[in-house]
Amino acid sequence: MMKKVSILAVLFPLLCFISINASAQKKPKAAAPQLGKVPVKDIIKAMTLEEKAKLVVGMGFKMPGMPKPSPKQMKEGIDIGGFKLPPSDEDAYNIPEKVPGAAGRTHGIKRLGIPSITVSDGPAGIRIDPIRNGDSSKTYYATAFPVGTLLASSWDPALVHQVGVAFGNEIHEYGADIILGPGENIHRNPLGGRNFEYFSEDPLVSGRIAAAVINGIQSQGVGTSIKHFVANNQETNRNSVNTIVGQRALREIYLKGFEIAIKGSHPWTVMSSYNKLNGTYTSERHDLLTTVLKDEWGFKGLVMTDWFGGHDAVAQMNAGNDLLMPGNPSQSKDIVDAVKAGKISQKQLDANVERVLNIILKSPEFKKYKYSGAPNLKKNAQVSRMAATQGMVLLKNDGKALPFTSAKKIALFGNTSYDLIAGGTGSGNVNKAYTISLIQGLTNGGYTVDANLKTAYETYINDIKAKRPKNAMAIFMSPPPIPQMTVTPDLLSQEADHADVAVFTIGRNAGEGADRKVENDFNLMDSEKALIKNISDAFHAKGKKLVVVLNIGGVIETVSWRDQADAILLAWQPGLEAGNAITDVLSGKVNPSGKLASTFPITYDDVPSAKNFPGKELPVPAGTPPPSMLFGRPSEVTYEEGIYVGYRYYNTFDVKTAYPFGYGLSYTTFKYSDLKLSSKTFNGSVTATVTVTNTGDVAGREVVELYVSAPVKSMQKPEEELRAFGKTKTLAPKASQTLTFTLTARDLESFDTGRSAWVAEDGTYKVKIGASATDIKKTAKFDLPKTIVVEKVHNVLKPEVQITELAKK
């Protein structure tokens, strides 16, 4: 009799076999490596090609105040006011901004623990939206610090470092990771629209001041992006202009400031510029971004593009431009396709990715910093005020018109006395809570300012502003200056009767997207000249003085009108505490110690680059779309002046100036004495010491400038070049301080194009200690017995065409 067997008994062994076999085949999935917990190279190995291509391209551009684009606009680009923005990445609109109003973000890759980091505009203060999501119950205003040109005019890296610390604190507490600044381009021409963001016509001043602000900002745990690398010395056709410049001028003038700053501060990032350099976009030049920047200078950070800079994502990656900003999806696709086609090597893309990841690892976002959204704005405003006073330059002070020792009643003229300019326009602008006008500052300082003038000016200014059309691109386009209000002879006579002194403020503004003009900008408007003359005549007739305050972002003409003023204070654009800071100097609370970091020429025609700035426009190639406002027309500019920029030109070719480089007065006087050199023969270095004594009756500080005149052998040399500088502490009357400067072979070198080397030629060198480039107080000499090849570099960045450069006959 057969035994009954259940179906379960038959199937059970089979089910067990299937289950065991399936378990054996299905292994547990390994967890993805996480950034920060494994070496960066392991993260890169774990990334897909698509993830790599996304990481090196920003999240996209979100136009402030605009609704989310349609799918078609997202794919094809958005037309705004006559120009078209490139396609957008949906993430820019779909992923909420951590810092509304910031300039851009990188993509995060969640599965690998890679966060998105935020970059913000702001060479003179972090640029973010003050109001978020329409909620005005809480504001996020930022401190407007003095503009770069004013900071450089302090000649005080220690002071600038303090500004950087305050600045970095705000970046940190507002949740950004990297600030897009400082600007490091040279003041090649006084009409440069963004000169206010930059520091000087001299690369040593530029480099040391930039290093100071970078070190200050980065001491707070956030990063900087020094910009715009390189030869971006104009705004006209900035996205399309081909800058044609010789290797020596490029190395000695335009690259040198960046080199000094980068080696002295190690910024997290460098921003490549918009322009072409000798035929190729800077963001697509391997010899610039890799050979010079990374190999020769040892830069370890990442290189990012300026916004929408360059045209070829593949060329940018191969050049060593590690991050494309603000980014769009088509760039990521191009990179993926190029790697698959062998046009970008996996090694190159991995190197780009690695640099991005290394910066992310440093960021507050990666470290999960719990930012407050509430930095100490009151404290930072006081830093801004203090710094502003230190960079103002006293250009003229006849008859001790300043400080105001007895004047209490002030007749205040000029539009910007009531509507003061804190800083420039464009990405250098700051959403600040307030700007202290000069009338507010004087009132705060205890002075009485005529109420009738105040009412008349404020009514006039408000009426003009109300009539101006709204401009969607107002962030970039600076409105023309308001013509000076007409002041009748009767009113002038009344003011001269009742006031102790007249103050007239001249204002100028500029910024991103356009250069300045000669007429009615560099030169004063006719209404301004007439008003200066009329005020001068009325007050001088009563035995009273006229003080002119220059609230400007760039150099202007002064010779045609300066004789009518008793004193001229160059206040630049001093930040949000402007009126208080200017009053501190006018009153004598602070003794001015600033000196010019750029020359004031007598006329614009005296400027060495006047004949070729901003270059010439070229024909638009047949079959190409018409130029847009955003990207400009094809053009080129040739730097025919070569190395003779600023004082290097004026001093070498004996061209008189209105106010020379390094010039600035004080309410006291100084004596220079006891210049000594450690040796009459150079042997590795020479040390110079000089003593400065305050010979006046007011405590003050003095900037001491060391220039070197090199022997002319196989190369032309400027008459003199700034090789060191220092600023005394505050010296009481009769007090002295000895300053020490050490010169090495690097301070004697010139760039020899034929040898592709930095060379110090043998011969006699003259050390000049001066209060300006033309006010030399003491001199000494030493000999270099044998020519030194200081450094051999790569023969790169050559012009495609022959340049006929300026030369001394």
Question: How would you characterize this protein structure?
Answer:
The protein has 809 residues and is α/β, with parallel strands linked by helices. The protein is built from 23 helices and 31 strands. Strands 3-4-5-6-8-11 form a 6-stranded mixed β-sheet. It has a 6-stranded mixed β-sheet with strand order 12-17-16-15-13-14, sandwiched between helices. Strands 10-9-7-20-19 form a 5-stranded mixed β-sheet, with no helix packed on it. A hairpin with a 5-residue loop joins β29 and β30 (776-784). Mean pLDDT is 93; it is low at 1-20.
Range of helix content: 25-40%
Strand content: 15-25%
Number of strands: 31
* Biggest beta sheet attributes: 6 strands, mixed
Form type? globular
Radius of gyration: 30 Å
Mean pLDDT: 93
Number of helices: 23
| Spatial separation of the terminal alpha carbons | 128 Å
The structure class reads alpha/beta
Low-confidence stretches: 1-20
In spatial order, strands of the major sheet run 3-4-5-6-8-11
